[in-house]
Amino acid sequence: MNQAAAGNTIIMNAGENDAPQPMKEGSIEEVRAERKLKLAAALRVFGKFGFDEGVAGHITVRDPEHLDHFWVNPMGRSFKQMRVSDLLRVDHAGNVVEGKGLLNGAAFTIHSQIHMALPQVVSAAHSHSLYGKAWSSLGRLLDPLTQDACAFFEDHVLFDDFRGVVLDNSEGERIAAALGERKAAILQNHGLLTVGESVDEAAWWFITMERSCQAQLLAEAAGTPKLIPREHALTTRETVGSKLAGWFQFQPIFDVIMAEQPDLAD
Fold first, then answer.
1. Spatial CA neighbour of 251 closest among 198, 213, 210, 211
2. Got the DSSP string for 203-220?
3. CA-to-CA distance for 166 and 250, rounded, in angstroms?
4. Could you give the CA distance from residue 81 to residue 152 in angstroms, rounded to a whole number?
5. With DSSP H G I counted as helix, E B as strand and the rest as coil, what are the percentages for the chain, rounded to 5?
6. In this protein, which residues make up the domain named Class II aldolase/adducin N-terminal (predicted)?
7. What's the CA gap between 175 and 177, in Å, rounded?
8. What integer pLDDT is reported at residue 33 of this predicted model?
9. Tens digits of per-residue pLDDT, 159-174?
């Protein structure tokens, strides 16, 4: 059974040919347009969900033609107002090669090193969301408390080397090295970072990780949570934590934000 079929066993009436799939084919221009649209939409979603904190926070996506370039939101433009036309294309030397706006130094330092060191990463998301930064201050990984949290079971890392605002490439390199093949990192005293093979995947991992932080904070405030046994947590991760599941979970959110805020495509 291939990954598409295996990833969709939860959909009872989908055959292999009609199961939901990310964009696989298209011209460079079509792939770029799709990635930029999803990036602008994800930023609007982050704004809608309250993940913004002043000018902090950024999502990037690798350019499909210039693989050492990525698209990113400009500093000082609200997530809630982001449009496709606002996005910046940046190279790994920190040059803005397309678009107008301010480049966030922390965004460049973190994301350039991730895109450079981890070629499998197409998109990365980071913001100073409330529950993510609260949980990060504890210096702990998330536990398998819920089905949703199992997406991150043995698939996220704690980066516990906080040295202030990330403006040094060496710290970006250390974050990328710590992340490795995992889908997410808890940046101690800072917040959450998620990655994926699409904007959809990276954005969904961030959304559900933020909610998993909230759920664990609430559960531990109320008492002593019961953990899901390792065997079942790993099995659950195969379903809710696959790359295809991450992409698919974002699709209803994308559809809603496009219906509510179609100007994001401008």
1. 198
2. HHHHHHHHHHHHHHHHHH
3. 28
4. 31
5. 45, 15, 40
6. 37-217
7. 5
8. 98
9. 998 877 777 788 889 9
First to last CA, the chain: 41
CATH number, domain with residue 237: 3.40.225.10
Diameter over CA atoms, the chain: 54
Domain count, the chain: 1
Tokens 């210096």 identify what position? 139
In this prediction, residue 234 carries a pLDDT of: 98
Is residue 48 classed as helix, strand or coil in its secondary structure?
helix
Position 30: which residue type?
E
Contacts of 94 (CB under 8 A, 6+ apart): 103, 108, 112
Determine the Cα–Cα distance for residues 90 and 60; give it in Å rounded to an integer: 10
What is the signed CA dihedral for 188, 191, 193, 199, rounded to 10 degrees? 180
Point out which residues pair with 159 in neighbouring strands: 187
Residue 184 belongs to domain spanning: 31-265
Q: What is the pLDDT at residue 162?
A: 82
For the chain, the average pLDDT equals: 93
Would residue 184 count as lying in a domain? yes
Burial level of 122, CB count in 10 A (0-12/13-18/19+)? buried
As given in the structure block, the two tokens for residue 195 are 């990655």
Domain-embedded: residue 249: yes
Q: Which two tokens stand for residue 9?
A: 């066993």
Report pLDDT for 1: 36
Instruction: Please work out, in degrees rounded to the nearest 5, the angle formed at the alpha carbon of residue 219 by the alpha carbons of 216 and 224.
Output: 110
